[in-house]
Specification:
The structure is a homodimer. Chain A has a domain at about 145-240: Orthogonal Bundle (Arc Repressor Mutant, subunit A). Chain A has eight helices and eleven strands. Chain A has helices spanning about 20-25, 30-40, 120-130, 130-160, 160-180, 195-200, 205-215, 230-240, and strands spanning about 45, 50-55, 60-70, 70-75, 80-90, 95, 105-110, 115-120, 185-190, 220-225, 225-230. At the A-B interface, β5, α3 and α4 of A face β5, α3 and α4 of B. The first copy, chain A, binds a DNA duplex through α7.
Chain lengths: ~260, ~260
DNA sequence: CGCACCTTTGAATGAGATCAAAGATGGTGG
DNA sequence: CCACCATCTTTGATCTCATTCAAAGGTGCG
């Protein structure tokens, strides 16, 4: 399980900011925007597998963009159980809640070793003042994350266990495919069945049985932490999964 | 069950835009911002109880701010069941998903008669270009809604039925109190127990039993659609409820 | 005043949780 | 390089919370 670690030197990624790379999936950045984004981020910071990057109820100092590795965001309930809200990959923003709350409502944990590009909230405010289109784009990203959460809510609130697990698998495949983190038709999950349970509102025991059922029905194949997709259309349909990774950019204001 | 209907004439609310009123809860608007907001909205539009304002998978033309009345946003699953995501009150924005998707991922339905202030997406883009602080504020609102969804997700995914119902009641009390929609320590819910079930991931039968249990334990009191809160601290604790209606505005860029 | 819709209640059923223990797996240090 | 230990997966048995099914009260609107 190897992941890119820190690239030394003043700049972050190879020649540009992490956020710029993410944004450029949606729009063609103007030179001025590109330059402003290059000034946004601090030097990349690394965390080990299991490290807590942002802790619930604490006051994060910065926001981050994922450069490499997996993370998840979760909350801890009073009764000791955990709900995982979302998994974060390359290009995902963490700590956005800093734009609404001084104390973080969520814990963000590194699932693998990760490298993150940090940037302070105030500098971000400057960025979107100078470049409103980028602010609008970030708003679009926030809205789309809200929709993903809503999908997961419907999945957990209104579908049986098998569909919940299926839906998570579909989502991971869709997102990882888009990031080329997929190997043919298989992905590697650095997750325990307990993690999957915490994301789907199930116990690890029951997750095990559901996975097993999906294998028996020839929908997926597993060995170790590797999952091969055998019948994606069927799983997508059984799980009510809808891919929302496309972003509508037609309404955005012009660049500066 | 009476609600304000349309105010005829060129302007929307009494001397200003609905969105301006919402924003002014968080920041003091500059004259330029105020003026721009006044130009944002079209004439208010009314819908009857039960009307569908935005339909899933269709292409909404505009966004709206709630001027009066209740609505909820929901999705319909393939199996015919419904998940209610969120209830919308005075000042809430609907159709924000238009900023990320061309097709709406959610249905928005009027729970009571409502009056809404519509504004087109493109004009909104112009607004936040001229006034980046308002864009930043909208971003904050989107992020805070995401957090509320996350809270509900944890509630549904990881707490028993009684706590789920309790959490919803706490949320409604907190939000309605802030909007002065509360009468002493009681609120009026224009919801059926089926609606509550669709919001909490339960059946109406079980919602009934849970409400009944809360009454028996002296936590709430009911008659008809009226709910009186008798022991809010206890309910808040049992339901793991956290009020997130406060918004952090310290990071916002200066107004124009 | 009557009908449609909502609430309430009981009994039976079932999906998923809990409890317990036996295999796998893999990372670590000797 | 191997052995050991911790962690994770798998499986079975039992239990429980919530659903389902069914039917009897309420309530308010037209």
């Amino acid at each position: 399980m190897k992941h890119l670690l820190c690239v030394p030197g003043g700049e972050n990624a190879l020649g540009g900011s992490c956020l710029a790379e993410r944004f450029s999936h949606y729009v063609r950045l103007s030179p001025a925007e590109q330059a402003a984004l290059d000034r946004l981020e601090d030097r990349a910071r690394d965390f080990r597998r299991g490290a807590v990057v942002i802790r619930e109820n604490e006051r994060p100092r910065e926001m981050y963009v994922v450069r490499s590795g997996w993370l998840h965001s979760s909350t801890m309930l009073g009764n000791g159980s955990r709900q995982i809200m979302r998994f974060l990959f390359h290009g995902d923003v963490l700590g956005m809640s800093l734009l609404a709350f001084s104390d973080s409502p969520e814990t963000v944990t590194a699932v693998t070793d990760v490298s993150l590009c940090p940037f302070p909230r105030e500098r971000f405010a400057g960025l979107i003042t100078e470049h409103p289109r980028l602010g609008a784009l970030m708003l679009g990203i926030a809205v789309s994350e809200r929709a993903s959460l809503a999908d997961r809510l419907a999945s957990i609130g209104r579908t049986p266990a098998r569909a919940r697990v299926g839906s998570l698998i579909c989502e991971l495949f869709a997102r990882m495919r888009r990031l080329k983190m997929i190997d043919g038709d298989a992905i590697t999950l650095p997750l325990t069945q307990e993690d999957i349970g915490d994301a789907t509102g199930l116990t690890s025991v029951h997750v095990n049985r559901m996975l097993r059922g999906l294998v028996e029905d020839g929908i997926i194949e597993r060995n170790g932490s590797r999952i091969r997709m055998l019948d994606e259309p069927r799983l997508t349909e059984q799980a009510n999964f809808i891919d929302r990774s496309e972003l509508e950019t037609g309404w955005l204001p012009p660049p500066r």
